[in-house]
């Protein structure tokens, strides 16, 4: 102690100033290197070294599986999809306004649909269910006005007026099924009447569609009506528990109108097949539609991940995997989960019930929170049914953000995450729902630590330069106390 005291008493203020400047410079270099390493690799270098090399030496183990191997070149081609960033899509599984959305509003007093969402649906109805030849049929003229009405009661009243003019007006039955029917059973009755009328009109349009461009437009409209009615009838059967019947109707519809793949009827089919636990059939559908040339969706990506997770989830243990490493099947499952999370990072919080669900909107934004709500609303039960699937998801989904530290600038398998999704989702989802945003990667502890150390050392150097005598006394006092 005496030797230390003598040594400290001989030190001059210049020494303390040089010491603090040197330490500040070194900590600054460490901070710059840590920041560069984090920008490039998405992780702290000091943290990576301590986890990878020091922890095994002291007997520790990493709880989470190591990051998966790179994807195949074929999967990398998915990043070349030329898809608009914030295009809004019709929800393939949208609910019935009268039988489901309205009942929710009656019970809770909350409006589940936004004006923006309903306005998009009104535009869809005008595009799908009207054409230039509507003036030739008085009932169609009435329905053309009905789709523009904002008030639901006015639309329903117009539908009855159209039926008075023509008892075979298919679109009038469609509107009543969607908005007046208060149960799925009632909606199905209306849709069956719409199907009978729609098939008759469709056959007439087929016979004379080549006569003029107006007849071709009428055939397109009648085709849209028929496809819409058959799809909604299949969805009614699915909701009423007649799942095999619903699957058959969907398959027949896809076979009869193969060019209408943009309607995403295969997503309805995937959900019904998962309910039947017909996983081989699900894989066959995925093999056809999970193609690099086709737009992706949460239903496609997460269903593919679920099937791969199903093969290993029952026996998966993070502790065991960290000791022995991942098997080939486990690597495939983790890669599929990372792929799905990169496409839509909002889904896991709903599947893991970290965030509450609301009724899905009638339109969704791919890769957005609205799509996540719509997917989880219908598919959460399928994940719960497979033992260990949610556990595997819980252990691995956040690893995606270590692979893609800056998703708005650079993606891994897909285009960078669109920055405009939050604004669009706020217009699609109800105001009482907290919209999810892309999980921002937090800076590692060691970057904060080195930044603080650098700042503290620089402050000491400045104080030593300005007040050398006081800092020498302070340093000697600290040394004495610590000794």
From TrEMBL:
One matching Pfam family: ST7
Underlying gene: St7l
Gene3D superfamilies cross-referenced by the UniProt entry: Tetratricopeptide repeat domain (1.25.40.10)
CDD domains: ST7
Taxon lineage: Eukaryota, Metazoa, Chordata, Craniata, Vertebrata
Keyword Hydrolase belongs to the record: no
Name of the protein described by the UniProt record: Suppressor of tumorigenicity 7 protein-like
Principal location: membrane
InterPro entries in UniProt: ST7, TPR-like_helical_dom_sf
Species per Swiss-Prot/TrEMBL record: Xiphorhynchus elegans (elegant woodcreeper)
């Amino acid at each position: 102690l005496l030797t230390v005291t003598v040594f400290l008493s001989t030190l001059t203020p210049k020494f303390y100033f040089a010491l603090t400047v040197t330490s500040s410079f070194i900590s600054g270099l460490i901070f710059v290197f840590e920041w560069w390493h984090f920008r490039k690799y998405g992780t702290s270098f000091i943290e990576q070294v301590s986890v990878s090399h020091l922890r095994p030496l002291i007997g520790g183990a990493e709880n989470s599986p190591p990051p998966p191997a790179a994807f195949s070149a074929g999967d990398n081609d998915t990043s070349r999809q030329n898809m608009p960033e914030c295009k809004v899509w019709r929800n393939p599984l949208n609910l019935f306004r009268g039988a489901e959305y309205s009942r929710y509003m009656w019970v809770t007093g909350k409006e589940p649909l936004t004006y923006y969402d309903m306005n998009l649906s009104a535009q869809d109805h005008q595009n799908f269910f009207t054409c230039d030849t509507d003036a030739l049929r008085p009932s169609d003229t009435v329905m053309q006005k009905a789709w523009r009405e904002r008030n639901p009661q006015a639309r329903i009243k117009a539908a009855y007026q159209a039926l008075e003019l023509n008892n075979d007006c298919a679109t009038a039955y469609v509107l009543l099924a969607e908005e007046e029917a208060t149960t799925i059973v009632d909606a199905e009755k209306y849709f069956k009447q719409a199907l009978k009328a729609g098939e008759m009109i469709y056959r007439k349009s087929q016979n004379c569609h080549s006569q003029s461009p107006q007849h071709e437009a009428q055939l397109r409209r009648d085709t849209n009506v028929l496809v819409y009615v058959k799809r909604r009838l299949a969805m009614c059967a699915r909701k009423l528990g007649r799942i095999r019947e619903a699957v058959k109707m969907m398959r027949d519809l896809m076979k009869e109108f193969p060019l209408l793949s943009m309607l995403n009827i295969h997503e309805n089919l995937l959900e019904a097949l998962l309910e039947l636990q017909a996983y081989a059939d699900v894989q066959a559908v995925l093999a056809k539609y999970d193609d690099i040339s086709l737009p992706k969706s949460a239903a496609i990506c997460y269903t593919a991940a679920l099937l791969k997770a199903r093969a290993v989830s029952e026996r998966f243990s993070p502790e065991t995997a960290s000791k022995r490493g991942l098997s080939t099947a486990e690597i495939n499952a983790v890669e599929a989960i990372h792929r799905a999370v990169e496409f839509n990072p909002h889904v896991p919080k709903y599947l893991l019930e970290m965030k509450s669900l609301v009724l899905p909107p009638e339109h969704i934004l791919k890769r957005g929170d609205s799509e996540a709500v719509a997917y989880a609303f219908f598919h959460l039960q399928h994940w719960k049914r497979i033992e260990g699937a949610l556990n595997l998801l819980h252990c691995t989904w956040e690893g995606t953000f270590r692979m893609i530290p800056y998703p708005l600038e650079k993606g891994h398998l897909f285009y960078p995450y669109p920055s405009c999704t939050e604004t669009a989702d706020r217009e699609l989802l109800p105001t009482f729902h907290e919209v999810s945003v892309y999980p921002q990667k937090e800076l590692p502890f060691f970057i904060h630590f080195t930044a603080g150390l650098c700042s503290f050392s620089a402050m000491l150097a400045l104080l030593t330069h300005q007040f050398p005598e006081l800092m020498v006394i302070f340093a000697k006092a600290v040394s004495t106390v610590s000794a």
